[in-house]
Write a structure and sequence with these properties.
The chain has 280 residues and is of the alpha/beta class. Helices cover 39% and strands 22% of the residues.
Length: 280
Amino acid sequence: MNSNYVHGYRDRESERLQHQADTLLDLLHNDTRYPAGSSVLEAGCGVGAQTLALARGSPHARITSIDVSADSLAHARKRVEAAGITNVTFGEADILALAFAPQSFDHVFVCFVLEHLPNAVFGLERLVDVLKPGGSLTVIEGDHGSTLFHPDSSAARESIECLVQLQRSAGGDALIGRRLYPLLAQAGLETIRVEPRIVYADASRPVWVDGFTNKTFIAMVEGIRDEAIAAGLITADRFDAGVRDLRRTTEADGAFCYTFFKGVALKRRTPPQPFGGRGG
């Protein structure tokens, strides 16, 4: 089990991830499509929340979904089987120590995983190793520092900051979304394109208010309450006030905004030449 996963592996977290995937389906995945017959590695599939979208969007691609947690993989398999999806195979594997042969996959997909790695560039480099030259790598990450909400609240911001601090203590980065371009460049990829995908929820968008603000973001913050208090990051009263103020943003006169970042890049078809080129 991955001790760096600050959100834990409880059933409640599995439910939150599915709410997130369902609500963000079009926003994050509407332009993720892979050709028939292509091989795709989904690295860090977790409980399969993104796997369903990936497989349905590319029903004739061959998808290999891996995760370091056997329990998460069991949940993912059940989800995929219940949905009648047949183009996914699962395997227990660590992104940082992949056993696949070099250049095994046409495409790599990684979503909400780099934020939990102590060295995101190293993780990307391992994924690039198993990617064929000219193949694509797609990565999606959030950025907890991108939250905007009305009414504003210092208590709410302190509660969110607890999540950022806990993830940093675990070796991750809850603000990684803003760093996708330099990370992909450092990993040696090219033709890099990073785009913001913005969630905006107010009373005119009740599906977003319920599915994202309430059941995804606030549920995520609530999930680290005991850990944040035990770590001395905040008092119980202050944390609870922050959650109440976040819920206040879901009322008729409230609004909540959050930014995800989606990057797509290609692996070089030929390795970079050493300085000075060939002889002469």
